[in-house]
Amino acid sequence: MTLRRLRAARVGSMALVWMLLAACATRPVADSQMPWTSGKLSLKVDASAGRPAQAVTAGFDLRGTDLRGELRLISPVGTAIATARWSADRAVLQTSDGEREFGDLDALSREALGEPLPLRALPDWLAGRPWAGADVARRDAAGFEQLGWKIDLLRFGDGALTASRSEAPTVVLRVRLERPD
Q: Which domains are delineated in the chain?
C-alpha cells in the first residue's frame, strides 16, 4: 500500500470514528426500544386567510408517545424531507434548511404548515384509539371525534385511516399503514 493510500485510509477511518461518536452522543428523543410505525400519508390543508392550499404526500416512520417521540417524513424517492422530535417541553424540526426548536408540537406544525395539527395525538390515532390527553366528543362504528377532528377507522383493518377537520381551513390526513408480514 502506498503512503498516499495509507493516509487516505487513516483519514477515512478517523472520519468514520468521529461520525459514530457523534451518533452515540446524539441520543434519540424516543426510546430506541419502541417500535416504529411506518406507512404513507397524504395531508391536504385548504386555502384560508390569504394562505394558499398546501398538500404533502410522503412516507413516514413514527415512534414514541404524546410525551416523547420522533416522526420522519420521506419523499416518494426515499430522501428525508423532515424529522420532528419532541419531548414534554420542546419540539425540534430538522429539514435541509437546518434545525429549529419550538416550545411544543402545535407551534412546530403551525410554523411548518400554517395550522396546528394534533401531532401529540397521532401515535394513538395511528393505533386506532383516541388519545388519552383529551376528551372524546363522539364514538360510533365509524370511529371517533376528538380535538375537533373526525377519525374514520372504517378501513383500519386494512391499514387505512382518515383524520379530518371541517373547521376552516379544512384539513384532511389520509394514512396507509404498512403492516408487518
A: 3-177 (2.50.20.10)
